[in-house]
Amino acid sequence: MFSYIKSDYGYTKLRKNFGRQTLFQKVPAHIVDSIIPNKDEQKQYMLRNPVHRLVQSTMAQSENETNTEPVVVHEQGINHTEGGWPREVHIYNEDHVNRHRRRVMHDDNYVHTVLNLAPVMNHYLDQNNAIELYQAYFCDMESQKPVEKYDVKIANVFRDPSSRPISCIQWTNEKKPKLVVAYSDPRTTHENNSCFFWDLNRQTIPAHEITPEEACWQLACSTLNPEQVIAGLQNGIVNLFDIREGKKPISQTSIYNSHRGPITALLYTHSRTQTEFFTGSLDGQCLWWDVRNLNQPIDCLIMSIKLRPNENPNIGNAEGISSMEFNSSLSTRFLCGTESGLVLNVNRMGRTHSETLPSYWEAHSGPVRTVQRSNCTSRMFLTCGDYSVRVWSEEVHTAPIIVTRPYRYEVTDATWAPLRFSSYMVVCKNGKFYYWDFLRKYKEPLTALKLSQNELTKITPYSDGESVAVGDSFGALYLLHLSENMTTPDFNDKHLMMQTYERETRREHILDNRLKEINLRARMEQEAIINSPGDDQNEDDLQKLTDEYFKIIKQDLRDAESFSRSLSIT
């Protein structure tokens, strides 16, 4: 908000230009002018005596009394005790109760009593079974409008003067957070490579500006110092900025020990000093760094997953990294999305390469644009790519447990809601923002909002869940505010979402086992057909026919040679 500034301006004038001084003095009263009344209008005047007027000098008030019906409330308790037992049986002693039950069951009348009660019990069982539990009753009822209203509002818009596409959005870690935005276009080159710090209350001019040497693809804000920012550039170099020192980087990596391609992922990792981070690039390498020393990486990992026998991992057979995810609860494990549509499960503490990359999921047909673990459980994660958003389980590697309907336009980014365990947000190339909730609407989004006529590229929510930042391909950054029912979780949301996760995981396990049984049965039937004795007989018959065919051919050749010889002799 702009503060009001009082402006003053003084005018100057010479004394000689003021004119003669004004002097005042006391004089008796005298008539300057007298207006004579109009005789015609004076004749029309009528004197009214008396005159009645109503005057009310106080505010009007009213008093109403109501008498409600009395409600009589009293407390009443119920004491339920188990009766029908003989006096010698103590109902709280299990031995006495079991002994008395065995004595009754050995009685001759016990069997007849049970047989007499059986028809009545069967009648009620048949009556209960007559109700179809899986039938959809009340289908003809008209659907009512939901009581809850989901509202998404555009609070502010921050525009880039150069209209560059937004490649990364981050929030600073401070009480009054700022938005750190990187702009780059992989298809074209811009002379302006600046990244902006935007104040949420000022949209005209950025609060701070940093200028890397190359186009910036990824950003990461420090958890200790809000003024420090790490930038991953298009040429594979990492720059460290401090806005207190100026626009230029205070430290950077060397091009000889950095990535060979653009940096597509940049995240802080778990460490004691909170100064370590790791980067991923299209060259297929994952490098670990320390902010205090950027001369060389701490560790390196090549993302080679589909290796042939006796083949060593190298950059030539590595998978290009498109996105990564790290959760502080799993300090040695992280997920990595690749350009070929795979999601790799990485364990940094593995001794061999196969232990470091133990498993993977075939997630999408194109690049995996986002991979993110759920706040509900770390075993469930979200991916987006091509035209779909999918939810996966670490226990199932064959198929996703939840798949939404495909979008008409390509999905560019997706993220879980920070506080609601069952909600996530999606942006697409048609300029629309979608908000989903599995517990309220499973097959369609709760709400959708058209933000821009251009493609939406990135979405990053704030930790409180109320504010969401969305960027498009024309340099516009939209700050959205969500309604309270879209940000605050309900009491049973986590429990219900865990039940949904376990149910869908169990369903996928059952389908996977059933598919394995079908494939095994088909393989056994095929082997039985191949090993059947009828096939041997058919092969023998085929061999006999082949021998007879070649015998006839040889005989025809002999006849042709003898005929040619007889012609030559004659």
Automatic annotation (TrEMBL):
A molecular function (GO) term: dynein heavy chain binding
- Pfam families recorded for this chain? WD40 (PF00400)
> What are the UniProt keywords, alphabetically?
Cell projection, Cilium, Cytoplasm, Cytoskeleton, Dynein, Microtubule, Motor protein, Repeat, WD repeat
Q: Does the keyword rRNA-binding apply?
A: no
Q: Its GO biological process terms?
A: cilium movement; outer dynein arm assembly
As for family, the record states: Belongs to the dynein intermediate chain family.
Where in or outside the cell it occurs: the entry states: Cytoplasm, Cytoskeleton, Cilium axoneme
SUPFAM superfamilies per UniProt: WD40 repeat-like
Q: What is the protein name for this chain?
A: Dynein intermediate chain 3, ciliary-like
Q: Which GO terms describe its cellular component?
A: microtubule; outer dynein arm
**Species of provenance:** Bombyx mandarina (Wild silk moth)
Q: Which SMART domains match?
A: WD40
Q: Which gene encodes it?
A: LOC114240661
